Amino acid sequence: MADRSDIAAVVERTARSSSFSGVVRVDRPDADTIALAFGLADRRHGITNTVATRFGIASGTKWWTALTTVALVADGTIGLDTPARTLLGPDLPLIDDAVTVGHLLAHRSGIGDYLDEAVLGDIDDHVMPVPVHQLSSTESYLPILDGYPQRERPGERFRYNNSGYVVLALLAERAAGVRFEQLVHDRVCAPAGLTSTGFVRGDELASDLAVGYLTPDGLRSNVLHLPVLGSGDGGLTTTADDVHRLWSAWLGGTVVPPDLRDLMMEPRSEAPEQAMRHGLGCWLHPTTPTVSLEGMDAGVSFRTVHDPVSGTTHTVLANTSSGTWPMTRALDEALGLS
């Protein structure tokens, strides 16, 4: 196994060669934690990133959505076999009557997607179908979720789906009678001891939050690209330390019971386009037990990987659209997780 100085050298070298701006953390059972920060959280004011800086994590939010949903399953508020229709009522009438919470978690619902990544252009394009300030609650997403016909029969195939995770947030809100962002705090962040994770409005000027930038240099930010307040498919902010805490809490059975934790990590689908498998809310290595979560959007990129065999975890958060990927690939290779 590579020693700490070798891994740190890989991180430093990759950061220089890729103009990386963000935070890297590596945890191994028999080695000191590596936590390093690079680049600027705020270029206009010259504020550097630190290991405590919060970053947006785009689709990494789906992990929290899945955990929130499964926590509601654990206490009987909702079931994996609960039909979405029972909580949607007359809303989103094109969603098939047979679509269940389990289908949505597994990306096997077959519903139409308001943000279909298979047909999107450049990551820095303006893709929101309404002015972003209008998306300030989960219920406010209803108009942009509506009007997309069912694409396949529920359960027929895996198709990554952003709409599905906003629908999950909507179902969770309605089942629990609590706004989604508060549910995430109550059911995931608080039990796991996460002190720096949550949904922050894009027009708030939080002092410890990295500005998301569209390119490795320049001052254009992502404020006009993303919903002003995220929901089930993206928009959460967190730190490398909180991501590590969540791994420990999830794997330790603190957030959801061990039987449901294991169910989440059980392969449900092959995802050949991503060269991965998928469980319930998490990506799975095609041949090993390694679990990963990731996200990418304008001004945001994130990936975290856990190998249950060695106990190794690495997390990369960046405040640029694609800054995470050179770093996480280098870490996968150096740590033997490719």
Notable characteristics:
globular, single chain, 17% strand, three-stranded antiparallel sheet, alpha+beta, eight-stranded antiparallel sheet, 10 helices
General description of the model:
With 338 residues, the protein is of the alpha+beta class. Helix content is 30%, strand content 17%.
What is the topological layout?
Elements (H helix, E strand, L loop, with lengths): L3 H15 L3 E7 L2 E8 L1 E3 L4 E2 L6 E2 L4 H14 L10 H4 L12 H5 L36 H4 L16 H15 L3 H13 L5 E2 L36 E3 L1 H12 L6 H7 L4 E3 L4 E3 L4 E2 L6 E7 L2 E8 L4 E7 L5 H11 L4
Antiparallel strand pairs: 1-2, 1-13, 3-4, 5-7, 6-7, 8-9, 9-10, 10-11, 11-12, 12-13
**Helices and strands, in N-to-C order?**
HEEEEEHHHHHHEEHHEEEEEEH
Q: Number of DSSP helices?
A: 10
The percent of residues in helical segments reads 25-40%
The SS-based structural class is alpha+beta
Silhouette: globular
Concise structural overview:
The protein is an alpha+beta fold and 338 residues long. It contains ten helices and 13 strands.
